[in-house]
């Protein structure tokens, strides 16, 4: 039976799966990406995970057609020119490095592009001809799916939506610009906004309840707080939703795409921010346009990226 290996390397986690031609995940691995340990360590972890899955495929008598990998950053023909989470990955041919060690066909693409392929194959975007995929995680990733396929732009770099500028005089971003969208609509952006929150009293109440200061609060903490009716947590997700709508409005106005599929870790708090997103979006688009926009939660969770990466070899 034909199968493929899909790898999803993010700013926080490294995931890999053995996937059959119908999209069934036969084996799944996950561990911390540990980006701070440097390129060699991360690549070694990736290769070790892939090797484990290749061995699993051999035990099952499966035919592995190739290894697909999604990596965050600017990527063309398997070369990472710049990555927001891996500062030492500059003009690094990760595709060649993986292929050399594994001796299998390898395809490397941007991680959000792989998530878009996964959702188009088996998730919320199945059957859609046009949509934009947004991953709301450590940063904001984006995938443009047009006319039934990924659209990567003239140089293959399209989809870096997290680096649209929404505040001209905003804080500096790791990309070299200022006021980028992901500084307001991501896990890292939320942490920055928490420190700037105007209602200090509600923030202090939340900190006291958790038993830790704001610098150590996680998205999971905020989500739990929101479910329990905490004022600070709910206000933070509303602020997140507001900025999410600001960015989506710009994409709607520029591209006239009506469907947005959103996944990533923060999407778990969907019910606490999506109403504010709709309101913010409606204020910044034409009335007729905003009525047509559909904001959809992704379905595949943390398997979307590995499924999309594997799909390249499975004739989906």
Descriptive key words:
single chain, 316 residues, alpha/beta, Nucleotidyltransferase, domain 5, 2 domains, 5-stranded mixed beta sheet, 10 helices, 40% helix, 22% strand, globular
Structure description:
The chain is of the alpha/beta class. It folds into 2 domains: 131 residues, ATPase, nucleotide binding domain (Nucleotidyltransferase, domain 5); 168 residues, Nucleotidyltransferase, domain 5 (2-Layer Sandwich). 40% of the residues lie in helices and 22% in strands. The chain contains 10 helices and 13 strands. Strand 2 and strand 3 form a beta hairpin. The longest helix is centred in the last third of the chain and has 25 residues. The two termini are 15 Å apart. The model has no long low-confidence stretch (mean pLDDT 93).
Write the layout of secondary structure elements.
Blueprint: E1 2-9, E2 13-20, E3 25-32, H1 39-60, E4 63-71, E5 74-76, E6 79-82, E7 92-93, H2 94-102, E8 106-110, H3 111-122, E9 131-136, E10 140-146, E11 149-150, H4 187-195, H5 200-210, H6 219-227, H7 231-255, E12 259-263, H8 270-283, H9 287-292, E13 294-297, H10 304-311
* Overall outline: globular
What's the CATH H-level superfamily name of the largest domain?
Answer: ATPase, nucleotide binding domain
Summarize the biggest pleated sheet.
Answer: 5 strands, mixed
* Class from helix and strand fractions: alpha/beta
End-to-end C-alpha gap: 15 Å
Per DSSP, the total helix count is: 10
Q: Give me the CATH architecture of the largest domain, please.
A: 2-Layer Sandwich
Into how many domains do the coordinates divide?
2
Average pLDDT works out at: 93
Radius of gyration: 20 Å
By DSSP, the count of extended strands is 13
The third-level CATH topology of the largest domain is Nucleotidyltransferase, domain 5
Strand fraction equals: 15-25%
Question: Low-confidence parts, pLDDT < 50 over ≥5 residues?
Answer: none
Helix and strand run? EEEHEEEEHEHEEEHHHHEHHEH
Q: Which bin fits the share of residues in helices?
A: 25-40%
Output the strand order for the largest sheet. 3-2-1-4-8
CATH class of the largest domain: Alpha Beta
